[in-house]
Structures are given as structure tokens and as C-alpha cells.
Design brief:
522 residues, mainly alpha, single chain, two-stranded antiparallel sheet, two-stranded parallel ribbon
Length: 522
């Protein structure tokens, strides 16, 4: 079933609205951001805090801007892929900037760039923080800080699509541009129904997580804030010591399950709930995901036990939690793995690059790409011995088209290249080698903790202010899977060249006109 012309006409603007997809969707997103700030202000009031007025003022500012963008723009009748990618990127940037408003007005952050960094980290699901000490911040601000990650989990764009069934043309392109991984599965004939089903799973998982965390002993505030960040695999915690603040094996075991669930393809969750109770068992990628978790847990646990002088029980506890938190790109912390052996740290670094399943809230390169790259490499080795052989790349029983394989290889090379450039940039801006490598890998994978002084026991105040600007760009690139960001930069560059050309032409015409006048007067 598709959106009819009558349906589209019902929502067509009756006033002089400017057709602009990016501004229109951004306006809708800002209205949702304002609603979240209001809820956080209510939490602040319930806690007896002093920042209720500043948070409500921030909500009013964001709502006003969102309303203006929404009411003065309209959806264009046709939109290109470049316009769709631009809309995705613009929406994320607008939401992140708007999310920093209550941080600034409350005074929780000393500088504007620090407030923006925290908001970008939240909306991109990264979980790196510059808030120190965390516990001293107002309750409402901590609640909003966690909610930014919940908003960013499946994306403000998906939410906008869910309430804009009249998008019609280009709707699935918008969803595909935002959804993590090589492709976005359509769960229903209409894109709006697909988005609603994703949100049904996401919202239901959030409620279940809140209840489960409350059952295992967390306070209502802690249960809600940690549910927001575990469902979104974001990792921000209202405590400096993160999950170590609870010092509970039961809490850690519960969070391991919830993190693994959040980094699983949401299509599998929906199919399990509706049509196929064996959806997880039948998925080759889910089986691969489970194997990666188990193998890395055994390896990291063994290395931790042998090299770091801990009991086998402690090694299992620390190993399983840290493998889960980095495989899923959540970034919760229980111990400082920077103190572990170099071999264990390298395994954890590999998990920071790989990330979880496509179609989930996890960051990183994604396991499906890692597996395709592995099969591609094996095929090329086999081709040396059998140059005339027909050697398709397979995932389970499915043959992956060569065009898709080429895209995966190209994306992986670009991903690694950006990490290398980011590492060099951070080093030039004054960061140490471990901090530069860890920061670049963590930001591109939306992981949270880095290496060296930016590890799980520290925060990102160790980076200079210019370096944190670079880190924010990398957070966006990792969350939007690079291509939308590149499209945005290329469009801006083209517009800049066009503006310079127009300015040059205007100056030349002005000069010619002045010379003509001079000749006439002479």
C-alpha cells in the first residue's frame, strides 16, 4: 500500500512554505527534543533541583526554533539521494546542538564547546564524557544526558518518518540512510509502518529494561537512566565509576544480556515476536555474533587471569562484561582495562573496530562487514590457486552480489583511512599516541572509552579543545556511516565554489562597468 495523491494533498502546505526536506525534518526533530527536555525538567523538579526554570527556558527555545522550521518549510515533491543524506546529517546536527541548550543554561558545563561535545556524544550513542564530576550535576541534567542517547538510538529521523506517513517518495531512502549497517530491512510495505514497528520493539525493550534493572536492585532513577543508555548501546552513566558504582555481579550480568540484546538486529526481534520463534537460531549472522562474544570472552578472560594476578571468578566477571560492553559499543565501565596485559587490550581494540550487528543500535564497522571481508579475503586466496573458478561470497546459504561485496570493501577501506587520518590529526593537536589511536577508533565506532589516559577510568577532558572538535566530527561520521557526512561536505564545497564563482563574476561585471563609465567620461 502506498501513499495516494489525496493523502499527500491532505498534508500539502496551504501557505507559502519553502520546500526543504532537511529543515522540515529537523523542525520535527527539535519538537521531540523540546518534549524530552520538558520531561527532564519535571525530573529536576521532583528531585527538588534548582535548574527547572533554565531547563524549561531551554525547552522553549528549542521548541520555538523547531516550530518555525516546521511551519515555514514543506516536503519537496521530489528529493534526490544527496538531499536525503543531507536531511539525515542536518537533523542529527540540529538535534545535537539543541540538546546542548539545557547543558549551557544550567551551567553544568564550563564552556559551550564542552556542552556541545556532551550532546553530540549522547545523540550519536558514543558515550564519551567531559562532565567531571558527574554526580555533582543536577538530576534533571543527568536524566536529559541519558535521554539524548535514547533519542539517538534508532534515530530522530526514523521517529520523524514514523509520524510522517505522507512522506511518500523517498521515505525508505531516508530510513535506509539513517539505519546502521549495509542495508535497512523493510518490515512492512509502507515505510511509516516499518518505522513504527522498529519503535515498538525499541520502546518495549526500554520498558522491559527499566523493570528488570529495578528488580535487580537499582533505584527508579538509576533504572530509567541506565535503561535509556543500555537500550541505545550508548553507555553514559550518572556516576563517575559507571557500573562499578553498584559493585554487583547480578547488575553486571543483567546488563550483559541487555547490551547483547541492544546490539542485535532489531528485525530479528520483531520477527521473533510476530512470526518466527526461531528467528535467532535461523540467522547465520546472529550465530556468528554469539560465537564472537563467546570466543573473545574466553580469550580475554584467560589473558586477564594469567597476566593480571586475579582469581578465575574475577577474570570471568571482568572479561565477559568488557567484551560485551565493547562488542556492543555500549562503553559501560567496571574496571580499568588499560591496566591489563597488552594482548587483552589488543583483543578489546579489535572489538571496538568490529562493533555489533547491522540493523541494531550498535556502532563500529559491523560484524556483517567483518564477515564479508573475511570471506572476500579467503576467496581471493583461493582464486590464486583456481584463477578460473566461480567463487561467490556467501553468508549462510545466501550469495552476496559482487556489487555489495565491492561496497563493503570500499567502506571498510574508507573507515580505516578515516581512523588513520583522525589518529594523525589528534596527535598533531597534542594527544599522545595511545590517546590518539584510542580516540579515533572509539569515535568512529561510537564506543565511548578510549585508550591510555582516555580509558574507562578517565574522561575526554584529556584532549585539547581543538582535538574535541575533531572528535565530534568523527562521532557524526561513525554514527551516520560516513557517506551522508561526505555527501554533506561535498555539497557544501560545491556551494562554496559556486558562491565564489558568482562573487568573481559579479566583481568582473562591476569592474567592466566601471571601466566603461570611465571611458565614456574620458
Amino acid at each position: 500500500m502506498t501513499t495516494t495523491s489525496a493523502d499527500t494533498a491532505a498534508f500539502a502546505p496551504r501557505s507559502r512554505r519553502v520546500p526543504n526536506l532537511a529543515a522540515h525534518i529537523s523542525g520535527a526533530a527539535l519538537l521531540f527534543v523540546a518534549a524530552g527536555i520538558v520531561v527532564s525538567a519535571v525530573v529536576e523538579a521532583g528531585a527538588g533541583g534548582d535548574e527547572v526554570a533554565s531547563m524549561l527556558l531551554g525547552a522553549g527555545i528549542v521548541a520555538a526554533v523547531g516550530a518555525v522550521l516546521w511551519r515555514t518549510t514543506a516536503l519537496p515533491r521530489k528529493q534526490s539521494a544527496a538531499a536525503t543524506f543531507t536531511a539525515v546529517g542536518a537533523t542529527w546536527v540540529a538535534a545535537a546542538i539543541a540538546g546542548s541548550v539545557p547543558f549551557v543554561l544550567s551551567g553544568a558545563f564550563p564552556t559551550l564547546d564542552a556542552a556541545v561535545f556532551e550532546s553530540v556524544s549522547g545523540f550519536t550513542g558514543t558515550g564519551s564524557t567531559v562532565l567531571d564530576p558527574i554526580e555533582d550535576a543536577p538530576r534533571g541534567i543527568l536524566f536529559w544526558r541519558s535521554m539524548t542517547q535514547w533519542y539517538g538510538g534508532t534515530g530522530m529521523v526514523v521517529l520523524a518518518v514514523a509520524i510522517l506517513p505522507f512522506l511518500g517518495i523517498g521515505g525508505m531512502d531516508l530510513l535506509r540512510a539513517e539505519a546502521p549497517g549495509p542495508s535497512a530491512d523493510r518490515l512492512a510495505p509502507r515505510v511509516s509502518e516499518t518505522a513504527k514497528r522498529l519503535w515498538f520493539v525499541y520502546g518495549g525493550f526500554t520498558i522491559v529494561s527499566m523493570v528488570v534493572l529495578a528488580i535487580v536492585g537499582l533505584s527508579p532513577f538509576d533504572a530509567v537512566t541506565h535503561a535509556f543508555t543500555v537500550v541505545s548501546t550508548g553507555g553514559l552513566s550518572p556516576y563517575n565509576n559507571s557500573i562499578a558504582a553498584f559493585d554487583s555481579v547480578v547488575v553486571e550480568a543483567t546488563l550483559i544480556v541487555l547490551m547483547l540484546f541492544g546490539a542485535t538486529n532489531f528485525t530479528l526481534h520483531w520477527r521473533f515476536l510476530t512470526v518466527d520463534r526461531g528467528s535467532y537460531r535461523h540467522s547465520p549472522m546472529f550465530r556468528f555474533y554469539a560465537q564472537v562474544f563467546l570466543c573473545f570472552t574466553v580469550a580475554v578472560t584467560t589473558l586477564h587471569w594469567i597476566h593480571d594476578d586475579v582469581s578465575i571468578g574475577t577474570a570471568i566477571r571482568d572479561g565477559a562484561f568488557n567484551v560485551a560492553t565493547l562488542l556492543t559499543s555500549t562503553g559501560f565501565g567496571t574496571v580499568d582495562y588499560i591496566q591489563w596485559s597488552g594482548a587483552a587490550q589488543l583483543l578489546l581494540l579489535a572489538l571496538m573496530i568490529s562493533g555489533g550487528m547491522a540493523g541494531s543500535t550498535a556502532g563500529g564497522l559491523k560484524l556483517i562487514r567483518v564477515r564479508v571481508l573475511f570471506h572476500f579475503a579467503r576467496r581471493e586466496i583461493t582464486r590464486v590457486r583456481h584463477p578460473r573458478g566461480v567463487l561467490p561470497v556467501r553468508l549462510g546459504n545466501d550469495v552476496i552480489p559482487d556489487r555489495t561485496v565491492d561496497r563493503v570493501v570500499g567502506y571498510a577501506l574508507l573507515y580505516v583511512f578515516i581512523i588513520l587520518v583522525g589518529t594523525l590529526g589528534l596527535a598533531i593537536l597534542g594527544s599522545g599516541v595511545p590517546e590518539s589511536i584510542g580516540g579515533a577508533v572509539s569515535m568512529m565506532g561510537n564506543m565511548g572509552p578510549g585508550l591510555g589516559d582516555s580509558g574507562p577510568a578517565s574522561n575526554f577532558l584529556v584532549y585539547s579543545r581543538p582535538a574535541r572538535v575533531l572528535l565530534m566530527v568523527m562521532m557524526f561520521a561513525g554514527r551516520l556511516e560516513i557517506f551522508p557526512v561526505l555527501v554533506i561536505f561535498s555539497r557544501l564545497a560545491r556551494r562554496g565554489r559556486s558562491a565564489r564563482t558568482q562573487a568573481t563574476d559579479a566583481a568582473r561585471r562591476s569592474s567592466d562597468s566601471w571601466i566603461d563609465r570611465l571611458r565614456r567620461t574620458g
